[in-house]
Amino acid sequence: MYKTIFQTALLFVAFVVLQSGGCNNVKELEYRGISKTSLQTLNLSNAELLVGLDYFNPNNFGLDIKETNLSVYLNDKFIALADQPSKTQIPKSALFTFPVIARFDPIKVLGFAFANIFSKKVKLTLQGSAKIGKQGVYLKVPLNITENIDISL
Q1: C-beta atoms surrounding 152 within 10 Å
Q2: Most confident option among 35-44, 64-73, 141-150
Q3: In this predicted model, what pLDDT tens digit does every residue of 61-87 receive, in sequence order?
Q4: 58: which of 3, 41, 86, 117 is 20 to 30 A away, CA to CA?
Q5: Do 64 and 132 contact (CB within 8 A), yes or no?
Q6: What are the helix (H) ranges across the chain?
């Protein structure tokens, strides 16, 4: 019995070593910008905004993003929490759009809008993490995106 347990443990360790050795060539996904936004829900108590984040996968293999937790800031003030609506498959060596839904209090954001009515640009920051991986092996990857968005009329 101990021999079987030892062999199983040895096979598991060998598998982990081989898998981690193959991951050394993984390149980081390249952020390209925000492609689209659309208001999904709006009422007095809450609002949902769908945001498409464009990325490029430089790897010769596809990946999955299965869980995302982001905080959204405008000019360094927290306004919303964001997550992904469903698991996203990332194609190999390709551009892709990663959707996230930001949930926020519209009254709070309206107050922010009045405070910045004469601004021509606002700083949008998304901070948090995503679980990215393949075939049941996922790593928690930090996300930190900052973009200045033109809001002039």
Answers
A1: 7
A2: 64-73
A3: 999 998 899 999 888 889 899 999 888
A4: 86
A5: yes
A6: 2-22, 106-115
Mean pLDDT to the nearest integer, 90-115: 85
Identity of the residue numbered 146 = T
Q: Which residues of 83-101 are buried (b: 16+ CB within 10 A; e: fewer)?
A: ebeeebebeeeeebebbbb
Rounded Cα distance, 97 and 36, in Å: 9
Distance linking the first and last C-alpha atoms of the chain: 75
3-state SS class at 13: helix
Q: CA–CA separation, 71 vs 80, rounded Å?
A: 6
Chain centroid, CA 131 distance in Å: 8
Cβ pair 147, 73 in contact under 8 A: no
Question: How many residues make up the chain in this entry?
Answer: 153
Measured between alpha carbons, how far is residue 83 from residues 79, 102, 130 in Å? 14, 7, 9
User: Alpha-carbon dihedral of residues 115, 116, 118, 122, nearest 10 degrees?
Assistant: 170
Is residue 34 scored above 70 in pLDDT?
A: yes
CB contact at 8 A, 37 and 97: no
